[in-house]
Amino acid sequence: QVQFVESGGGLVQPGGFLRLSCSVSGFNSEKYGHKDRHAIGWFRQAPGKEREPASCISFWTNRTVYADSVKGRFTISRDTTKNTVTLQMNSLRPEDTAVYYCAVDPTNYCETGALNFPYEELWGQGTRVTVSS
C-alpha cells in the first residue's frame, strides 16, 4: 500500500511562514496507466468547509499549479530522488488555517493545469496548520 510521511504543520502568527514536507513510498504508477508521469500535491480542509486543492507539481515535466487563494504566497517543489514534495508557505493568513493533506495525482491532471486528487487511497493522513495571534 501507499504510505505518506507528512510533517511541518504547527501554530504560526499571521504574516509568518511554515514549510510542509511529504514523502511518498509504495506508489505504483503503472497501476494507473501513467508510468512515471504522476504528480503530487496538497489539498486542505478547514472545519466545516469543503476540501480545497492548493497546489501540485508534476514529476514528469516539473510543472506547478497553484490555487488562486495561495498563488504568490506558496511555493511547491520536488525531490525526485527521494520522491518528496515541499510546500513553502509564506505570508500566512488566518484563512489558511486547515488540515493540509498530501496527495498523489496518478494520471497527472496537474500537467494540464488542473488540481485534482480523485483517489482517496492516495491521500495522506494530514498535518494541521493554525494561523492565529
Model description:
The protein is mainly beta. 0% of the residues lie in helices and 44% in strands. It is built from no helices and 10 strands. The protein has a 6-stranded mixed sheet with strand order 2-10-9-4-5-6, with no helix packed on it. The chain has a 4-stranded antiparallel sheet with strand order 1-3-8-7, with no helix packed on it. Strand 5 and strand 6 form a beta hairpin. The model has no long low-confidence stretch (mean pLDDT 96).
Number of helices: 0
How many angstroms does the end-to-end distance come to? Answer: 39 Å
Task: Kindly name the structural category.
Answer: mainly beta
Helical amount among residues, as a percent range?
under 10%
Whole-number radius of gyration?
Answer: 14 Å
Strand order of the largest sheet: 2-10-9-4-5-6
Apparent shape: globular
Q: What is the H-and-E element order?
A: EEEEEEEEEE
Biggest beta sheet attributes: 6 strands, mixed
Architecture blueprint of SSEs:
Layout: E1 3-7, E2 10-12, E3 18-25, E4 39-45, E5 52-58, E6 64-66, E7 74-79, E8 84-89, E9 98-105, E10 127-131
Parallel strand pairs: 2-10
Antiparallel strand pairs: 1-3, 3-8, 4-5, 4-9, 5-6, 7-8, 9-10
